[in-house]
Amino acid sequence: MLYLASSLTAHRAIFFAGALNRDLLPLTITADAPSPSSDSISPLYNIAELAQYNIPSVITTDDGSYAFHGLVTQALEIYLDHFFPLSPVPSPLSPTIYTCGPEPMMKRVAAIALAHNLPCQISVERAMACGMGTCQSCIIRVKKPDPAMPPLPGKDSCYRLACTDGPIFPASDLLW
Ligand code: FES
User: pTM higher than 0.70 for the full model?
Assistant: First the structure.
């Protein structure tokens, strides 16, 4: 995500970060930034690693120990409902969502993105034993058959490898 952030300096971007509590956020919260309230979804320049790329952040903690009290997916949904209400036709100004983290969280992000008709890219998490396409431990099922791989019998899907085909996949393709 930090590498992605470094490549987005010519674009508007907002970073959403969530953890169980403040101590588990693997990021540097700047002491001089305003302290957000427990229901705030206003992006602030309060994460040093993102602020250096001029990217503001919305922080959430499950226990309310810092910033938005709740799940990061809840904050994202409120933000999108407010600023990008569902449109049947994607606008050129529509944002793209990029997500990484625990799979249940990413599934919810994918569902929110699809419900808002927004493109979303998922960095999938899979156990990777070899990392070079040999052991097949990192398979993930996707919707669109890859011409290079046979679809599953009777199904409009096939398997891809997170290590060599991904790990980034469009949310609309994933069958998890
Ligand atoms: S990690 Fe072995 S095939 Fe992907």
Answer: yes
